[in-house]
Amino acid sequence: MDAKNANSALHPILKNYSNGGSYNSPELHVERPIYQIQDLHKDTLYEKPYSTVKTKAASYCNSIHPAQCLLDRIPLLRWLPEYSWKKSFLSDIISGITVAIMHIPQGMAYGLLGGVPPISGIYMAFFPVLVYFLFGTSRHVSMGTFAIVCLMTGKVVSEHANVEIMPNGTEKLMDSYTEGSLKLTNVEVAVTVTFGVAALQLVMFALRLGAVSSLLSNNLVSGFTCASAFHVASSQLKDLLGLAIGKRRGNFSFIYTLYDVGLALPKANSTAVMVSLISCVILMLNNELFKPWLGKRFKMPFPIELVAVALGTGITYFSGIDRTHNVTTVGYIPTGLPEPVIPIFNLLPEIWVDVVVITMVSYTITMSMALIFARKLLYEVDSNQELLALGLSNSVGSFFSCLPVTASLSRSMIQQSVGGVTQLASVISSILLLIVLLWVGPVFQTLPRCVLASIIVIALKGMLLQIKDLPRHWHLSRWDGLVWGITFFVTLFVQISIGLAAGVAASLVSVAAQGLTPRASILGRLAGTDLYLDLKRHKAAEEVPGLKIIHFVGGLSFASRDSFKELFVQKVGFDPTAILRKIVKLRERGIQMDAEEQMITKGIIIDFCSLTFLDPSGVSFLRQLQSELDSLNITLYITGCSGRVYEVITNCDRWEKKDSNFLIFPTVHDAVLYNQSNGLIKDIVAFGEKNK
């Protein structure tokens, strides 16, 4: 029927419906023969797709074009010629200025969190960002400092550094230094971590392991970041309260840190506590009240963090509370670009576990942010290219006192929301930060560290409140809730790296358990249709007399065949193996038992339309099941096999030189009609023989 005739046919129906008449659903009438799968394949010219290694290699080589490769490896060359300077450049300038303002307080705060001088956080927003501008595929992520990655790097620094580079550039021997041991400064350890992360990211790019981030599910990342946020918050209690306590290392550090803070609480610096309290209140009032109100009127957010930094610096400078009340300040901030620092390559074997964990966390969070913006704004990001961009960014940063860079949620959201269109916004931001590095940096020397700690803690609010996600994950899926809980509690109470490993292990167990646990349901026919529905859920469906129709979901392999057998026995109501065993035992005693007459079920249909996987062990199991049912004069039908499942069966028959003789049908209805027609033929034959 052509389009004109179709519209003519539909017009009376639509007219009647629009006039308030009843609308009857269209009816479906199909006439075709009852197909077995072999007949269907013959009529449809079925052919298994076939390709050799040679043809695959030739196809791959033909798809390689040097110019295309260059564009793929340097995405800047693809989008910059198409960039609309008239429409987008002003938006990128505004976005870049806004993000630069956020980088200054966050960079300094997270630099301290990473165990390095505050200025290193500004370096992270300059050198790696320029490299990402060339090689990154996301147009909106803001690269630089990220609290959790800085905390994890700071943990490695505190464990291995024995010499601290003070803000004024001098070296101070730490308690962990022993006479004659190799001197490792905090900056050297940090850049070694960054170099290790960069090397691993480049190796992952070469091996095309961009999809590895899928190992970290959303619920795992939520539990991990939430617990890590508590670690970050606990690490800031020292500066918030003005306490002189050391960093705890190793397992249970969160508990020990809280214990140390509790013991030292009577010695808290009241002035530092007051400054922290005022800073936190101002930041919270801005975030909860002023920011939403202002957001309805202006695109650009109010730079409250920079205001807090400026006020803290100015008040301390003019009041001198750093000298009169012992309020710890940031101290000396150098001007100019940093001198290159060579990573300590001999340290890499000792920190490789932390490097792997930091790499996974950094890449997963960056990819998550990139995908959020790509889906929202309808463009593509390349997961493998992101590995290259991150690897090269960290490679350059590792020689300039940088910690591993990651996309920041807050900065990225601001960069996009104020109108940022491309990574040119990051270039604008870097230019402004270069001015800070060359001339403005020393202005912040009197900034109290408790102000930076307040900025960090308030910025963590969203991550800390993720603890409310546990009930939601639990109600959505018990397995998701279990993964979230294991990841959170092990990360929080044991150690960050162990928590991530525990979360990944729990996720893999969850996937394996759910994948290896098949499910099944008994289907019944909806009267007058060819629809077969779950009897437990659809009360109008009725079981076909003499037939058991089992819908199977999952995989049938060596690992799941026992579970499949249990489900099969449970659904059909008898165990063919046990019945045959009972018959043999009775015959040994001279007792004859005719099982056929006692069996109500004359046929069993297994619907494999949701079968995800079949291996040779599964085929062998089906052969055994068919043999046992044949002995009981019960016919086994298989329906809904995908092409791959059918090819596994035929391949096993060919190589094992066996003929399974499975009755395979494309649909359940074909099998039901075939069974009923065979039953009718048998009845006619029996009636004829009876009346001879």
| Percent in helix | 55-70%
Low-confidence stretches: 1-18
Broad structural category:
alpha/beta
The count of DSSP E runs of length 2 or more, i.e. the number of strands, is 10
- How far is the N terminus from the C terminus? 54 Å
Determine the number of helices (DSSP H or I, runs of at least 4 residues). Answer: 30
Major sheet description: 6 strands, mixed
How much of the polypeptide forms β-strand, as a percent range? 5-15%
- Mean pLDDT rating: 87
Rg, nearest Å: 34 Å
Specify the overall morphology: elongated
In spatial order, strands of the major sheet run 6-5-7-8-9-10
Transmembrane segments: 93-113, 119-135, 189-211, 271-290, 302-321, 351-375, 387-409, 421-440, 447-467, 482-509
GO biological process, one term: transmembrane transport
Protein name: STAS domain-containing protein
Membrane topology: Multi-pass membrane protein
Plain-language structure description:
Its main location: membrane. It is a multi-pass membrane protein. This is STAS domain-containing protein. Helix 11 runs antiparallel to helix 20 (449-459) and helix 11 (218-241) packs parallel to helix 23. The model is unreliable at 1-18 (pLDDT under 50). By secondary structure, this protein is an alpha/beta fold. It is elongated and about 120 Å long. The chain has helices at residues 3-18, 37-43, 53-62, 66-73, 76-79, 85-113, 119-124, 127-135, 147-160, 186-206, 218-241, 253-264, 270-295, 304-319, 321-324, 348-377, 383-397, 409-417, 424-440, 449-459, 461-464, 469-476, 478-493, 496-516, 561-572, 576-588, 595-598, 616-631, 643-656, 668-690; strands at 143-144, 163-165, 171-173, 406-407, 519-525, 532-534, 547-556, 603-614, 635-639, 663-665. It has a 6-stranded mixed β-sheet, sandwiched between helices. A two-stranded antiparallel sheet has the order 1-4. A two-stranded antiparallel ribbon has the order 2-3. It contains 30 helices and 10 strands. The chain is 61% helix and 7% strand.
